[in-house]
Design brief:
- This protein is of the alpha/beta class and 494 residues long.
- The chain has two domains: 376 residues, Alkaline Phosphatase, subunit A (3-Layer(aba) Sandwich), CATH 3.40.720; 71 residues, 2-Layer Sandwich (Arylsulfatase, C-terminal domain), CATH 3.30.1120.10.
- Helices cover 26% and strands 15% of the residues.
- The strands form three sheets. Strands 7-6-5-4-8-1-9-10-2-11 form a ten-stranded mixed β-sheet, with helices on both faces.
- A hairpin with a 2-residue loop joins strand 14 and strand 15.
- The longest helix is centred in the middle third of the chain and has 25 residues.
- The N terminus is likely disordered.
Length: 494
């Protein structure tokens, strides 16, 4: 009996050891909306736009109220997410076009979050809008740790949802849009702006976001038996206002007194006869894509083994005639929009779901930034290979799992666009500089505004004169965290 008992214990030991050794690492799906405002999901207070799948994601996971994107516009925000470096250290700090196609590339020596996953044996895929290096450059996603890429390499190309091609890995794949619908265009000469038929030229046949969603689902199915990292930077709701008619119809029934966007001022994206309905239906379409992803994960019995993250690269666009952010209350009571380091330009939704690990229906007011995700996910997947590259992230894994709630060190942002800006979040305090590279006799480019976000989320009362000691501390952080950039200078502090 003793021998039998001993044999049983040995068998049990090896069984447990083997199970541990072959335990599957969790899949990670990171879905990134494009220009989605803080208040544009039902779970964040939106009343007009329907987002049932994302609202369900919030119910099943953790919702963050103080999440900060990497920057105030697309490319530099995504660079922070990909490299774990805040904008004072990141290589890409503003948008910028390079010919013939694409944006300034991330250098090869930069370590991306995709490469971190590759080191852990993950299959990696990116589906949607890239914007961090044109086709064939060192910044091409296929050169930055991704095994699979499908979508738009170039941000400007992504201004149209009905293009003539998309990229599949390193190949151009034609779409059935002949001719393609431009992202920037005006009504035909002599067209009646009050006639809905005048806007028919901006409708295409092959909606690119549908194709991207299909490829993302194929990636999940193909790799269901191995750990995968799926990066899904959707185009929506970035203008132009392009959306299939079937998604538009429910909102048209609401009769929102929707004045047409005619592009009469000569700038902006393509016109739309009912821009409010179009914008709402685009977000609902994106919500449907998220539902497709989550439902497939459930169907494949992968839910317990999959971390799903949803966020946005920056706040709502400032193009009022195209996106009526006042009508939708897109940023709630926050100040600022896309392009601004005020809260409305950079505080964005964040939902995180991991059944059995993250408490369903939980809400966090802890400050978190895009640079935190590389080190946080490294911890959540129990990675074995250290992150050797320098990064600015702070591990939020314990907080997300409900085990520890330590305060995050100060958060730093800078942006060379829209006049030049710097911002620091330190506990309840926020200091911000604006118009740093604009010329003017009566302008102080180094002036710091100070706000107490615990009492004043709308950043309406400047407390700088009342708290000079806090201002000086923030000034020191601004100086310390900024490394001059050759390509994105802020000369007054370089």
């Amino acid at each position: 009996m003793n021998k039998l008992y001993s044999f049983f214990l040995i068998l049990l030991y090896f069984s447990l050891t083997f199970s541990k050794s072959v335990a599957r690492k969790p899949n990670v799906i990171f879905i990134l909306a494009d220009d989605l405002g803080y208040n544009e999901l039902g779970s964040y207070g939106q009343k007009k736009i329907k987002t049932p799948h994302l609202d369900q994601l919030a119910k099943e996971g953790m919702r963050f109220t103080r999440n900060y994107s990497g920057n105030a516009v697309c490319a530099p925000s995504r660079c922070v997410l990909m490299t774990g470096k805040h904008p004072g250290h990141a290589f890409i700090r503003n948008n910028g076009e390079l010919k013939p196609e694409g944006q300034r590339p991330i250098p090869l020596h930069e370590v991306t979050i995709a490469e971190v996953f590759k080191n852990e044996g993950y299959v990696t895929g990116a589906f949607g809008k890239w914007g961090l290096g044109g086709p064939g450059t060192e910044g091409d996603p296929m050169n930055q740790g991704f095994d699979r890429f499908y979508g738009y390499n170039c941000q400007r190309h992504a201004h149209s949802y009905y293009p003539d091609y998309l990229w599949s890995d390193r190949d151009r794949i034609p779409l059935q849009n002949n001719p393609p619908v431009p992202g920037h265009a005006s009504l035909a000469k002599g067209a009646d702006p009050q006639d809905p038929k005048s806007y028919e030229i901006f409708k295409g046949k092959d909606f690119s976001s549908d194709r991207i969603n299909e490829q993302a689902l194929k990636f999940i199915k193909k790799n269901k038996d191995k750990p995968f990292f799926l990066y899904y930077p959707t185009l929506i709701p970035h203008v132009a206002l392009h959306v299939p008619d079937e998604e538009l119809k429910p909102y048209l029934k609401l009769k929102w007194n929707d004045p047409p966007f005619t592009r009469s001022q000569g700038y902006g994206y393509t016109p739309h006869f009912t821009p409010r309905a179009a914008y709402a239906s685009m977000i609902t379409r994106m919500d449907r894509y998220v539902g497709n992803v989550v439902n497939l994960v459930e169907k494949l019995n992968l839910s317990n083994d999959t971390i799903v993250i949803f966020s946005s690269d920056n706040g709502t666009t400032h193009l009022k005639l195209e996106v009526d952010y006042d009508f939708f209350e897109s940023v709630g009571n926050l100040r600022g929009l896309k392009g601004s380091l005020y809260e409305g330009g950079i505080r964005v939704p964040l939902l995180v779901k991991w059944p059995g690990k993250i408490k369903a229906g939980s809400v966090s007011d802890k400050m978190i930034g895009f640079e935190d995700w590389m080190v946080t996910l490294h911890k959540l997947i129990d990675a074995e290979v250290p992150i050797y590259a320098k990064h600015d992230g702070h591990d939020q894994a314990s907080h997300i799992l409900g085990k520890c709630h330590l305060a995050r060190p100060p958060l730093y942002r800078e942006f060379s666009g829209y006049g030049g800006q710097q911002a620091v979040w330190m506990g309840k305090w926020k200091g911000i500089r604006q118009k740093m590279i604009r010329k003017g006799k009566n302008h102080d480019p180094l002036k710091i505004e100070l706000f107490d976000l615990s009492k004043d989320e709308s950043e309406s009362e400047d407390l700088a004169q009342k708290h000079p000691d806090v201002v000086n501390e923030i000034k020191e952080i601004m100086t310390k965290e900024h490394i001059p950039s050759q390509y994105f200078p802020i000369k007054v502090i370089d």
